[in-house]
Amino acid sequence: MATSEQASGGINAHPMDQFVIKPLFGGHDVGFLTITNQTLWLAIAVLLVVALMVLPMRNATLVPTRMQSAAELLYGFVRKMVVDILGEEGLKFFPYIFTLFIFILISNVAGLIPTSFTTTSHIAVTGVLAMSVFLTVTVIGFARHGIGFISLFWVKSAPTVALRLVLFFIELISYFVRPLSHSVRLAGNMMAGHAVLKVFAAFVPAMGLFGIIPIGAMTGIFALELLVACVQAYIFTILTCVYLNDALHMH
Q1: What CA–CA distance (Å, rounded) separates 78 from 74?
Q2: What whole-number distance in Å separates Cα of residue 182 and Cα of residue 228?
Q3: CA 30 to chain centre
Q4: Which parts of the chain are beta strand (E)?
Q5: What percent of the chain has pLDDT over 90?
Q6: Which residues make Cβ contacts (< 8 Å) with residue 123, sequence separation at least 6?
Q7: N or C: which end of the chain has fewer CB within 10 A?
Q8: Do 215 and 202 meet the contact criterion of CB atoms below 8 Å apart?
Q9: Which of 237, 243, 249, 244 is nearest to 81 (CA)?
Q10: What is the rounded distance in angstroms from the CA atom of residue 221 to the CA atom of residue 219?
Q11: Is 83 helix (H, G, I), strand (E, B) or coil?
């Protein structure tokens, strides 16, 4: 089907091919220790985080450089978010929360580079991040409140005991669904936007001189994707703060 479309000058769009994990050094099988395109771009994201946040602050000056100003702006933005939701007590978790935010932000934005690989479009990456948040919140909750942490799921305002029992199981299920919703939201948004960009890109050669139309649309979608990349990092981080707030200050 794709061959006949190419021969007739039709549209040849395979939007999901960009999400395929491939070995970097030959072969087709991906094993546990195989270095893949995903491995490469995860490493690049870490290096970019170091270049953006660590190197500019090594020789910080009273009059900041542009890179130092960007690093301080991101630092202050996340710090204010943590204080607003968790209070001053939550600052002990700031390094963890900030690391999550800056890694997801850089990974999302790096995925917009042509020929790059969007690591956060895979549930294998976002799932690990979400599960780490879930386990951290659960451990902190039981460490701080003991067995009383279970009362987080007991809705005292319900008028009857029977209704409280029903709501207890609903709240318990919703709690364990958090890692799934937390990870799928990020991966789904990143995958959907990139797939749409690939589809519009396939229209460019097929439309000839009128290819300027999908190029214009791609420009708008790319700007929207850049916004989505930033917003999704913010949403993941603010939900992490909200979940931590449940563990620190129940009810």
Answers
A1: 6
A2: 15
A3: 24
A4: none
A5: 47
A6: 183, 184, 187
A7: N
A8: no
A9: 237
A10: 5
A11: helix
pLDDT at 5: 43
DSSP 32: T
Of 141, 139, 108, 138, the closest CA to residue 126 belongs to: 108
Instruction: Output b/e per residue, 120-155; b: 16+ Cβ within 10 A.
Output: bbbbebbbebbeebbebbbebbeeeeeeebeebbeb
**Which is more confident, 237 or 248?**
237
Give pTM, 2 decimals. 0.86
User: What pLDDT score does 13 carry?
Assistant: 64
Kind and range of the H or E element at 53? none
Could you tell me if 107 and 120 are in contact, meaning their C-beta atoms sit under 8 angstroms apart? yes
For residue 235, name the pLDDT band (cuts at 50, 70, 90): very high
How much is the CA Rg of the chain, to the nearest whole Å?
22
Scan for tokens 């690591």, then name that residue: 119
Residues ≥6 apart with Cβ < 8 Å to 95? none
> What does the pLDDT look like over 93-144, one tens digit per residue?
999 999 999 999 999 999 988 888 999 999 999 999 999 999 999 999 999 9
Q: What backbone torsions phi and psi does residue 65 show, to the nearest 5 degrees?
A: -80, 175
pLDDT in tens, 160-196: 888 889 999 998 999 999 999 999 999 999 998 888 8
* Dihedral sign for Cα atoms in the order 155, 160, 165, 170: negative
Query: Helices 212-248 and 94-110: crossing angle, nearest 10°?
Result: 170
Q: How far is CA 215 from the centre of its chain?
A: 27
Among residues 212, 194, 196, which one has the least CA distance to residue 204? Answer: 212
Identify the residue whose tokens are 């939201």: 185
